[in-house]
Design brief:
Strands 1, 2, 3, 4, 5, 6, 7, 8, 9 and 10 form a 10-stranded mixed sheet that branches. By secondary structure, the protein is an alpha+beta fold. A hairpin with an 8-residue loop joins strand 2 and strand 3. 15% of the residues lie in helices and 22% in strands.
Length: 365
């Protein structure tokens, strides 16, 4: 068994983790030499020397010609290079490999993406980049056949350090945890190494954007579902202290703890058919980092078994109103009572750029 990586973000998934070089690849921005070893090749620049003619009238045109051996040539010369004929790409034979169901831990900066989940007519989502990389590397045939599940979704601009997905990918092995064969599998007849697993972390990070990083993976049983097998989820929201009343904010935040009807603290997801708005919040903390001054950074840390769409941002918005004296703490009690407040009041939810999905907890594999 490989050694369990003991860093805090990874420790919340209590099963064997396989990491490139036994080192966790951090999310972007990471320009350290250590981060460069995460799988992204150093760029190699090739210079092309060209002659430059003087713009002065009467300059010698022979000056821009190459030497006798043609070291310097006009870039537009038809003899400079021959066009390479493109060869048709061979279809990858997935029947020569077994499949393996794995859980993958991902970190990304979501500021420039349109959320995590793929959307119709929108290409720039984190999930689109993930599936593009998986398909390019021939880890999967297509999305519909890879038994894909995700722990949760993040909105436009929201980042994550502990997003977890599960899917079945191509495996070099003939047997092992999570490894299974399909009816048409001919993996036993494949020549080459059948004992060393593919380095999923290293290979994926080579083709993914630098602000999307795969941190680790582990084998799971074929029935594992990243969403429904998650015991709890933790989010963090960062904000400047300024003139906010942090003490009254901490007191008001405790009203969210426990099981409540959060229909007034979310965006109704009609397309998903959500009809049950009761969710359980396990803890809600507000901490201030560094010295006590108006520029001090504060962070809300909320842990729950599950969350509704935009729930964390809506709860944060009400707490910010309360900390500015624009609302009283009792407004939370009123909004949590669906019989007294059957419709969501009009208010602007907090920005998503300060929100971070930190980690997920799983109790078994």
């Amino acid at each position: 068994m490989d050694k369990l990586i003991g860093t805090r973000p990874l420790a919340v998934i209590p099963f064997t983790l396989y990491v490139a070089g036994n080192v966790v690849t951090p999310p972007h921005p990471f320009n350290s030499p250590r981060a460069r070893l995460s799988g992204r090749s150093n760029f190699r620049f090739r210079g092309v020397v060209v002659g430059m003619a003087s713009s002065v009238e009467g300059s010698n045109p022979e000056a821009v010609k190459g030497d006798e051996k043609g070291t310097l040539k006009d870039a537009a010369s038809p003899n400079s290079s021959k066009e390479k004929q493109s060869k048709p790409r061979r279809t990858f034979d997935f029947t020569r490999y077994n499949q393996r169901h794995i859980a993958v831990k991902i970190a990304y900066l979501g500021w420039k993406y349109h959320g995590f989940v793929s959307q119709e007519n929108i290409q720039d989502t984190v999930e689109e980049h993930l599936f593009s990389a998986l398909t390019k590397l021939c880890f999967i045939k297509d999305r519909s056949s890879c038994h894909y599940s995700r722990c949760g979704r993040t909105d436009k601009g929201v980042s994550a350090l502990g997003q977890v997905i599960a899917l079945s990918v191509r495996s070099n092995l003939l047997e092992g945890p999570g490894v299974f064969s399909t009816e048409e599998s001919r993996a036993k007849d494949r020549p080459g190494d059948k004992t060393t697993e593919l380095n999923y972390v290293y290979l994926l990070n080579r083709v993914l954007p630098e602000d999307i990083r795969v941190l680790a993976w582990c084998p799971v049983n074929p029935q594992f579902n990243a969403r429904f097998d998650c015991l709890c989820r933790t989010y963090k929201y960062f904000f400047p202290r300024g003139s906010l009343n942090i003490d009254i904010m901490r007191s008001a935040a405790q009203k969210f703890v426990g099981e409540h009807d959060f229909r007034n603290f979310c965006k109704i997801d009609v397309s998903a058919g959500v009809t049950n708005f009761r969710r359980r919040i396990l803890s809600f903390q507000i901490d201030c980092l560094g010295d006590d001054n108006p520029y001090q950074v504060c962070v809300m840390t909320v842990t729950g078994q599950a969350f509704l769409w935009h729930q964390v941002r809506c709860m944060t918005a009400i707490l910010l109103y309360i900390s500015q004296g624009l609302e009283q703490p009792e407004v939370i009690d009123y909004m949590l009572n669906a019989s007294l407040c059957p419709g969501r009041p009009q208010y602007t939810m907090a920005s998503g750029k300060q929100l971070n999905q930190c980690w997920m907890l799983y109790g078994f594999v």
